[in-house]
Amino acid sequence: MATNQRRVDMTDTRQTTQSGQFFWMTACLWLLLAAPVSAQLLNEETEDSDYPPGLSARYQAGDTEIERVDADIAFDWQAGRADSRLADGPVSVDWTGYFLMKAPGKYRFHAYLQGELRIELDERTVLEASADSPRWVSGPELEISFGELPLEAS
Q1: Which pLDDT score, from 0 to 100, does residue 88 have?
Q2: β 142-144/105-107 pair status
Q3: Can you give the CATH number for the domain in which 137 is found?
Q4: Full-prediction pTM beyond 0.85?
Q5: Same domain for 146 and 70?
Q6: By the 8 A CB rule, do 128 and 116 touch?
Q7: Largest alpha-carbon pair distance within the chain?
Q8: Do 86 and 42 share a domain, yes or no?
Q9: Count of domains observed in the chain
Q10: Closest alpha carbon to 54 in 73, 75, 74, 70
Q11: Which of 30, 86, 119, 143 could form an SS bridge with 127, CB 3.0 to 4.6 Å?
């Protein structure tokens, strides 16, 4: 009985060793296959991170002017001020930055706004509109080229 028990223990040890070897072979294979993908993703992140995300913004209300970076241009200022450092009342904003166009083609810009908006991309007006009450507005369809294009909005 003890002999059989010992044989079973050795078989279990051999199976554990074999499954451990299989695990490490699988892990090494996964690392070898994942390394080029990780390097490619890292390279893409580095290429796209030449510029920080967002647009440089210059806000003006009365005599006060502030600058900050806005990650998105999507605001609802009906409930409060655009920035706590600004006085209440009308606000004007100028945004500048770069727009990375990855696929050239025909595009149309849209905005949901109340007030006035003008967007220039690569020194061309892609949207210019005003609205007394909140509504959607659209610019003309334009052919836009590939690359990092200067963007200005106000």
Answers
A1: 79
A2: antiparallel
A3: 2.60.120.380
A4: no
A5: yes
A6: no
A7: 96
A8: no
A9: 2
A10: 70
A11: 119
CB-based burial label for 58 (10 Å; 0-12, 13-18, 19+): middle
* CA 110 vs CA 43, 77, 102, 119, 128: distances in Å: 32, 19, 19, 10, 10
Q: Where are the beta strands (DSSP E) in the chain?
A: 55-61, 64-70, 92-101, 105-107, 110-121, 124-138, 142-144, 147-153
State the pairing for strand pair 142-144/64-70: unpaired
Tokens representing 154? 């106000």
Q: Mind listing the pLDDT tens digit of every residue in the chain (154 residues)?
A: 444 443 434 444 444 444 444 444 434 344 444 444 434 444 455 455 566 788 999 999 888 899 999 888 877 777 677 788 888 778 889 999 999 999 999 999 999 988 899 999 999 999 999 999 999 999 999 999 999 999 999 9
Separation between Cα atoms, residue 32 and residue 85, nearest integer Å: 53
Q: How far apart are CA 10 and CA 154, in angstroms?
A: 77
CA gap 77, 86 in Å, rounded: 12
Query: For residue 49, what are its two tokens?
Result: 């991170």
**Residue 146 structural domain:** 55-153
